[in-house]
Design brief:
mainly alpha, 97 residues
């Protein structure tokens, strides 16, 4: 017959001893964490694609092929995307909202 042992105190159910309200706050924090990292990763990938495309066209001298929309938004893309990434990561890492 296999011998059963009690798990150490540090390995417990994550909701052990929490009220229903605390459980809900915990789950909301986990959701915000995942959404924050997801938004940050998507924004970082989008920035990488945009910057690499613009840099490739600029190096090849094809400024005429760059979209007027991209050319007009160029100075704003980096700060806005950086702000979105920074905000997403800061929201994801916070415990107390």
């Amino acid at each position: 017959m296999p011998q059963t042992t009690q798990p150490p105190d540090r390995i417990r159910d994550r909701f052990d001893g929490l009220t229903a309200e605390e459980q809900q706050e915990y789950e909301q924090h986990r959701l915000q964490l995942h959404l924050g990292y997801g938004v940050g990763i998507v924004a970082a990938i989008a920035l990488l694609i945009i910057v690499s495309t613009a840099a490739t066209l600029a190096v090849q001298g094809h400024f005429d092929r760059m979209s007027p929309f991209l050319t007009a938004l160029g100075p704003y893309l980096l700060p806005v995307t950086g702000g979105v990434v920074g905000y997403a990561f800061s929201r994801g890492g916070r415990r107390n909202h």
